[in-house]
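A sample copied in:

***
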Amino acid sequence: MRPLLVRLHRWFGLGTAAFLFLAGLTGAVIAWDHELDALLNPSFFHSTTPGAPLPALELAKRLEAGEPHAVVTLMPLSVEPGQTWIARVQPRLDPQTGQPYALDFNQVALDPVTGAEQGRRMWGKASLARQNLIPFLYQLHYTLFLPTKMGINFGVWTMGVVGIVWLFDGFIAIVLAFPSLKSWRKSLAFRVKRGGYALTFDLHRSGGVWLWGLLMVVAVTSISMNLGAQVVRPVVSVFSTLAPDPFRSVAPGPALTPAEATAARERIVAEATGLGRREGISAPPGGLFAVPESGVYGVGYYAAGKDHGDAGLGNPWLVMNARTGQVLGRQIPGHGSAGDIFIQAQFPLHSGRIAGLAGRIAISFTGLVVAMLSVTGVLIWLKKARARRKPAMQAKPAKAAASTIGTRERATN
């Protein structure tokens, strides 16, 4: 049995090494994406104009008035002092062609006091420019910038399948790490003084053992991040009843006209506080997203600057029919079945934010360990492959010599 597990571990590891190395390094960085992005691009994130900020709806109107081919689809409803108001946009449809207008940006930062633009960019663009670097790494982490063809996002599917293989390989690895009860101490040790191959082997085996539980959490949540609807939710639903996913299960309605979208946005913002209270949400409305082509709006409830959820299971969200205001779906952290709470925990666990600052440090360190395990695994395989080839190479001259001697003996006879 052990030889089969060794073989499986070898090929699973080699097949996923490059993907996990890239995911580990980028994951270690994007655990701090907001902080690093702001550090690299202070003019995009920081505002120095004194005074009270304009209402979010007014800032959205000014942005759309200055860019008539763009519509705001995600915006904060309040901002922290000294921070810009940053909105996501998408192109409107050209009424003559029915196709979206061409836009070279999808994110805009405004001075919240004056409404003046401080920057724009295409979030997720494949670019190493300072303004694009962190969004590029974030996008690279889970899509590899692979294309979407025939409705299939090959990047998301690739990383999801890698996560599944990694999960199975993790269980194989922990079995191989403890060949017997007597040798358990070796599986936790690092032969630092010996260095070389011995240390490389220990970094791979013992490093994986020490962080095995955290590595498996990252593997499971990586599957959820990529193949949640296709794999994780169906599996979880076998064991627990799941509420419909409020962000994916809402049936699209008729597209909103620009006038309907503006009116719906104003009405939903005005009603958001009372609606949240009726749903048992104490946090203030903090963000608004829109899917105008589906007639859907959503409100997130959190304090200014807490849009990414700094601890726990994240922020509450309500999804509404833009025309009627009817709540179509809800995601309220800690509410629902055991399966619902498990699903809610996936991103907070994957990002480490479930445990606040300590969790993010742990996830960033784990990302570096994943990259290290990928490299040491390949190095171990290369050394063993060379060792297996060496006897074969030595056998070839001996075989040739024996053949020559045999030929000569036949000739003399």
In short: The chain has one domain: 2-363.
